[in-house]
Amino acid sequence: MMKRVLWIVAIAMLAVSLAVSLGVDLVRVRWEAKNKGFVVLVRADETKGIPLLKLAEAGIGAVAIRASSLREENGLSPTTIHRQGLKAALILDRPFPQGVKIKDQFTFVWEEGNLAPDDPLLIELLNQGSILIQREFTETSLARNLWNAGFHRVVRGHEIPREELLKTSRTAILARWERAVRERGIRALILSPIPGDDPKEILKYYHEVTARIADGGHHLGNLSLPPPEPDWPVAIVFHLGISALVLLVSLNLFGHLPLACLLLSLNVGALALGVRGILLRQIDALLLALLAPTYGGLVLLPHVRSGWRSGARFLLLFSAISLSAGALLGAILAHPAFLVKVAQFRGVKTALLLPPFIGVIIYSRSASWGWLKGLLRSSRDLLGALLLLASIATVTFILLRSGNTDGLVSGVEERVRGLLESLLIARPRFKEFLLGHPLLFLFGAGVCHGQRSERWRPFLIFFGLIGQVSILNTFAHAHTPLLLSLLRTGNGLLLGFVFGMGIYLIAFLMKRVPRCF
């Protein structure tokens, strides 16, 4: 009786959290639809031979001056820049020189040195209303410290290093700029001329970039729209929902200890009394990423049958749980600090690997661990050993690719990515539609089911759950527009279902392959 009451209470709390999350997500979507302004900047030391008026005609909105060059007689001054209808930005590459007027001179500022967050000039600029540009792939500690001090006028910036401009085609460069604005919330584009181009070609390149972004539905200027910030009670509701999920998982794992489950859930809920703000959201987001796939496995694994209908049902129901958790995750991270990536989701690799391992354990409880003995025997065979090594290599590769690892992306993969983007707008993740979803489909369809092949089923559920974790990882990227994340997930699910069904049909035509390998 007590277990049933706890289950009902937990379901109700989780349902309320999901309902509130939909409201928060709708507010976020409306903000993202309006937050279409962008600005294009160039560095003053890269404008030689190009009149400022021509830059403005090419779509350039601001010229950035280094603090170290402000006292040079031949350098551009903010006044000169303003006279041509452009805004001025300041690059803080060293402590600001004394005796130089800064009041109402600089609209934007970014740091390229090792500046302290309490630097007097930086604080003065921010107090005057200057917008801090946090450049992508650079250290965020300064922006984070300033955010914690109350300076929230931050936009995400991106620039392509000169060495990459040299080895990348013009088409690929333009696509990269478009992707940065559309998918990663970039609103400040810091352009550098392509090395070797003359002024005419430089201006043409600048115009192509601004035109490409504008054609995508964005418009120059107007960066003053602040991200929405949910009220503190909303964060409490989300935290209670996560506590309810802890309770549900605990009741499934330890159903004979309902009181201990209740105490565990209350302990997690009490976190909200001592932890607040960004840290609480990071804790809740990580718990959700770990618990949602685990709960999906606990609920759905006991009901797996065989046949393609079972496979489709298993994949779709599991993905529905992951999508619901993704909507809640997107709402938890719908906070200005996450939307401009001053703060971000923590524990990517833990969330990527732990749920698949837990899924294997959940499966093994019902299979009495018999598969493990068969796997140990098969590991002595050459084919079995090769499959084990291939699995380990795959997991290692996925872990390496879970961060910013552009160097691991081959030219062929870049071309495939470009093709998928042109066809589907939002490119689905490879580990979803090529790995996770097809294998989860095959697991649910009962492929590799039988005395001789049972030992390989845990591999299907392990890699299948990586696809579900990847869904949550998509929504953990709060700087990516929510509707784009939904489209990306839907594309991955559709392609993954098609691939899984294709593999199943091949196995069916081969009389379901009486023995696997």
Q: Which key features would you list for this structure?
A:
TIM Barrel; 7-stranded parallel β-barrel; 8 strands; 517 residues; alpha/beta
Walk me through what this model shows:
This protein has 517 residues and is α/β, with parallel strands linked by helices. The chain folds into 2 domains: 2-27 and 229-509, no CATH class; 38-220, Glycoside hydrolase/deacetylase (TIM Barrel, Alpha-Beta Barrel), CATH 3.20.20.370. It has helices at 2-34, 52-57, 78-83, 120-127, 141-148, 162-167, 170-184, 199-215, 232-253, 258-269, 271-274, 277-300, 308-332, 336-339, 348-367, 370-378, 382-400, 411-424, 430-444, 457-476, 482-509; strands at residues 37-43, 62-66, 87-92, 108-111, 131-135, 154-158, 188-191, 219-220. It starts with a helix and ends in an 8-residue tail after the last helix.
What's the short version?
The protein has helices at 2-34, 52-57, 78-83, 120-127, 141-148, 162-167, 170-184, 199-215, 232-253, 258-269, 271-274, 277-300, 308-332, 336-339, 348-367, 370-378, 382-400, 411-424, 430-444, 457-476, 482-509, and strands at residues 37-43, 62-66, 87-92, 108-111, 131-135, 154-158, 188-191, 219-220. The chain is an alpha/beta fold and 517 residues long.
